[in-house]
Design goal:
Layout (H helix, E strand, L loop, with lengths): L2 H14 L5 H8 L21 E4 L2 E3 L2 H10 L7 E5 L5 H6 L5 E6 L2 H13 L5 E5 L12 E6 L8 H5 L1 E11 L6 E9 L2 E10 L12
Parallel strand pairs: 3-4, 3-6, 4-5, 6-7
Antiparallel strand pairs: 1-2, 7-8, 8-9
């Protein structure tokens, strides 16, 4: 099956699911998802499902990736903090849409594999490190956009403090994986405005760096 036959039905599903921003759809179309999944799952790379990537982590469902990316309202002038690099798929989708991405991954193996993919795809506006994503990246703050790909109990204050006034954070909230809500947080001069984007299922946001 060729590239067009694999990606076109997926893009149709994303449009039907609410991903309507042409730039976001073009970014997803431009990222070869099969590079971000392990060999046993490559045949399913263009299904609209989450897939395991090792270390008890997953590559997110393309619809969720599209909706989260769209909700960030990116431009090529925005600096983005991503908490949870994972396979690097979401990072690669963000790359053509923003000025620079700073991405943090707590699993050294996943970080190293993602960095190799970024080099292969010649994505030069991504800086990634192994670290504690729950602490953010204070040396590079403030960020106009923050994307969190793991579920927190509540909006982390430390991340909100690293978000620029007027900036947007997308984050799953909820400790029970069966009762998580995707939240869009906009920082204001006197606090934050929140919008519930619906139910999702993500791994938990954990502190510290994982063992190799």
């Amino acid at each position: 099956m060729n590239w067009d036959n694999r990606i076109s039905p997926l893009l149709g599903e994303l449009r039907n699911g609410g991903v309507t921003d042409p730039a976001v759809l073009a970014a997803i179309e431009g990222v070869p998802r099969e590079l971000f999944v392990s060999e046993p799952f490559k045949a399913r790379a263009y299904e609209n499902v989450a897939l395991p990537i090792g270390r008890h982590q997953t590559i997110s469902q393309p619809l969720v990736v599209g909706l989260m990316t769209q909700a960030l309202a990116l431009t090529d002038r925005k600096k983005v903090l991503e908490i949870g690099t994972g396979s690097g798929y979401q990072t690669a989708v963000l790359a053509p849409l923003c000025r620079r991405i700073y991405s943090i991954e707590r699993h050294p193996q996943l970080h190293d594999e993602a960095e190799a993919r970024f080099r292969h795809l010649r994505l030069t506006n991504i800086t990634s490190i192994i670290g504690d994503g729950s602490a953010g990246w204070p040396e590079q703050a403030p960020f106009e956009r923050i994307l969190v790909t793991a579920a927190a109990e509540d909006v982390p204050r430390v991340l909100l403090q690293q978000l620029a006034v007027g900036g947007i954070m997308i984050i799953p909230i909820g400790v029970d994986e069966h009762d998580q809500r995707l939240m869009r947080i906009k920082r204001t001069t006197d606090g934050a405005e929140t919008e519930d984007m619906g139910g999702v299922r993500f791994v938990p946001l954990l502190p510290g760096v994982a063992d190799k």
